[in-house]
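User: Hi! I'm a student and our assignment asks us to look at how structure tokens line up with a sequence. Could you show me two examples?

Assistant: Happy to help. In each example below, the sequence comes first and the structure tokens follow. Example one:
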Amino acid sequence: MKLALYLPTFRNHVTVQELADLTDLAEELDFDSVWTLDRIIVPEASDRAEMKYPFGMMEQFPLQMPVMSKGKWFQGWPILPWLAARTEKVRIGMSITDTPYRAPAVFAAECATIDHLSNGRLNVGVGAGWMPEEFDAASATHLFPRRHAHVRETIEICQGIWSNEIFEYHGEFADFGPSGFGHQPVQKPGPPIWFSGLKDPKRSANRVAKYGLKGWIGIQDTPRELTEWRNAIAEELDKLDKSIDDLEMSSMIWFTITDEPTDQTDNRKVSNILVGTADQITEMLIRYKEAGLTMPLLWPPFADVPVSKTLEDLRQLHEEIMPKVHAA
């Protein structure tokens, strides 16, 4: 099991120095990767719990974001070049890039540049987005009903630009003649692509098989949910002569080590999965390992836990907990 850090770029107040301290520690502790979050806006309606959909379209959450509309957070995409320059070992990525907010060809070319800045350490995470209000702010209102198709075209355009000096594409969302886009990525045939959402095992398996996707990223998946999902997609992949063992399984999970035990009852997305004592987290990570989770994205809470506490927790995880997990 590898470890990844989900930088708290999206919270009520975060500073560049806090992000730097967390990134430096992830590098020091030999984490696999560091990821940012794609969040463009928080609608003012969220403060009144009047959004069109709950957070992440997850029914257990309110019609409200965990961050206030006047919060001081950072956009995730511009942080990637900064991460490339600041680090030397960890891989970097954004979980998840909502493709409808970006022109596919421009996105592909920018990924290639960032792959050079990081000397071949970029992961590309893609998803469809879920918040109509954010589509409005990104001037992409018309794409909301067709957002999943936009992801597919973005993947095709990325792989085409990354693998060809001259490339053309004629589709629903992009239509351009033979063109060059500058440097191709360091990684060949291109940066690994991770996808999120799309909790339809057949469609997911088809996408993995067709495009050679590297991994899947969920959010707050309990060991039970992960096992059910992994088994379902494994069955579909098997029909396509593909193995689930070739697909990385990850999930963005809120992480805090507590002094007192927490209630870790499986309550789906609102469970205290990796919030608990060191012993509870050790046991949970072992369960995840058995369920097939290859890389938890450790997500500092949106509020109430200072970065200084997260830094302590990450060290304790590395020094005390993970040796027991690896030995299990």
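Example two works the same way, sequence first and then tokens:
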Amino acid sequence: MFLCRSHANPRYLQVQSSNDLKSIPVLCLAIVLSEYHSFQVHFFKRMKSIKPAKNKSSDSHRKNHSTHTPETSATTDTMKLQKFLAQKGLGSRREMEALIAAGEVSVNGETAAVGDRVGIDDVVRIGKRVIRSNIKESMLKVLLYHKPEGEIVSRHDPQDRPSVFDKLPHLRSSKWIAIGRLDINTSGLLVFTTDGALANRLMHPRFEVEREYAVRILGKLTAEQMTQLTTGVELEDGMAAFSYLAEQGGEGVNQWYRVILKEGKNREVRRMFEAIGLTVSRLMRVRFGPINLPPRIKRGQWLELDEKEIRRLLSLLT
């Protein structure tokens, strides 16, 4: 027995056999077709709301990264192939783009194209060399370090002096890039990142990113000397001037000043004071661009920025 029912017309029509279908009014057939159409609409709506299971085959996974337009989640879970290879230390991004364009790079067994994205489970090859992508490890990182005096900002030192890199957390698939340097006798803020583009944005002279220092000198600046330091003093590698200079007090012969530079030449602050006959007895960097040295970071300690803080930093630099 077949039942025919409509939401608009709740009557049931009983059919004893297939021959009786000839006696069903045309209206009932329309109801059947209408109900079938409603079922189709409901079914496909349900199918769209169900997330497809992961396809572990290389073909479907490859298409997932090369043909779809990246969304917000893609930017956090994947990165461009040329950037990934550059962060592995295999060359610059342009060199990696050329390598990819030449067909030398594959992802999950398929020849890659410039602009492809790679994720956590992707296997990247250059020729026969396998480079597994650990995106969580490779994503942009920023770390703040409170450098004490007595440490150098270098990985290799013939004198085997303590290095700031000895204190930093170990990275398996990328490396820390120091944004600017501090000499062995200078303390304060050091910024590290795993992203070369961010390092360049903060360090390149054309961006004129401010560096702020607390300086203690033996003696007190005269008005003439303050004018000289802010208008320019002659150094062996050119003119240099503070964009800001203010007295911060002190005791006895030790006087503190706050100074700001928009470049990062070697030992520039010390050399500027030496050029006017004064000696810097203590120097501490307290700010680099939009990043201040947090008071909670003690000397020799570091703090890694979280994703929200990194996004805020990048927004301040745009």
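Here is something you could point out in your write-up. Residues 26-49 form the longest helix (24 residues).
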